[in-house]
Amino acid sequence: MPGQLFVISGPSGAGKSTIVSALRERIDRLGYSISHTSRSPRGVEKNGTDYHFVDKETFEDLIEAGDFVEWAEVYNDYYGTSFAAINEQIASGIDILLDVDAQGARNIKDHFENSVLIYLLPPSLDVLESRLKARGTDTESILRMRMEKAANEIKECTWYDYIIINDDLEKAISEAEAIIVAERCRAARQEQTLKKLFAKYISIG
Ligand code: ADP
Ligand code: 5GP
Q1: Which residue CA neighbors atom 12 of ligand 2 most closely?
Q2: Residue 166 and residue 189: Cα distance in Å, rounded?
Q3: What distance in Å separates the CA atoms of residue 105 and residue 5, rounded to the nearest whole number?
Q4: Using CA atoms, how far apart are residues 145 and 161, in angstroms rounded to an integer?
Q5: In DSSP terms, which residues pair with 68 in a beta bridge?
Q6: What's the domain count of the chain?
Q7: Tens digit of each residue's pLDDT (9 = 90 or more) over 113-128
Q8: Would you place residue 205 in the very low, low, confident or very high pLDDT band (cuts 50, 70, 90)?
Q9: Burial class (CB within 10 angstroms; exposed 0-12, middle 13-18, buried 19+) of 121
């Protein structure tokens, strides 16, 4: 059975990276799709771990070469998911988390219709702004741009499969974990296990 894709979207500062790393520590066989971006690394971000950081020309060459499942221009920079970032992992049955914006989520859903879409919201825009300020990784003008975009983009949450409000961090992580665990228990995803355990008693598939 190929791995399942779990897309996490939400405005910048909603807590996506924080929750993605907590989930990867807690859940077995959960991979991550490392996106390409033309933006510069911020804080402690590492090339090849958080993103593949490339310049705009290189990104455009990769688009030309058809390397991306999806890509988008966000805050004046390119971001994209390469086929390489996901194909090998899902082929070996690894579920993958993807942190992409709403355009990316739609495109992923078009390519992989079983993907599960989760939208992460802050408890309010004021809290979002104070978290971005406390994170301290953006200049004032970038912070303004991120806040303006947040106000416009949160309406996208309505067509996602799940919405999580990230007020208390531990509660938000537990909710995301519960979604992944429940999706793994779906009958359709248990066929191999059933065949292995009970093929003698029931006919499957
Ligand atoms: P994103 O990846 O969505 O841009 P981050 O994971 O970088 O967001 O989170 C933005 C900031 O908010 C970080 O400094 C993070 O430690 C903090 N943060 C995340 N969730 C919470 C929470 N529930 N309560 C308080 N601070 C949080
Ligand atoms: P950040 O600069 O905060 O890391 O990311 C900015 C935005 O780009 C976030 O909304 C994030 O979800 C989105 N993003 C990151 N990687 C990708 C990607 O590969 N594709 C798309 N479409 N969006 C991405």
Answers
A1: 100
A2: 28
A3: 11
A4: 27
A5: 82
A6: 1
A7: 999 999 999 999 999 9
A8: low
A9: buried
Look at residue 77 and tell me if it is in a domain. Answer: no
The answer to whether the pTM exceeds 0.70 is yes
Closest CA to 128 of 175, 174, 166, 79: 166
Task: Give, using CA atoms, the residue closest to atom 14 of ligand 1.
Answer: 135
Q: Is residue 84 part of a domain?
A: no
| Mutate-to-test residue for ligand 2 from 42, 74, 83, 149, highest number of ligand atoms within 8 A of CB | 74
Q: How far is the CA of 13 from the centre of ligand 2 (A)?
A: 12
Q: Which CATH number goes with the domain that contains 154? A: 3.40.50.300
Rounded Cα–Cα distance for residues 45 and 49 (Å) = 8
Using the predicted structure, report yes or no on whether residue 75 has a pLDDT greater than 80. no
Instruction: Give tens-digit pLDDT for 142-157.
Output: 899 999 999 999 999 9
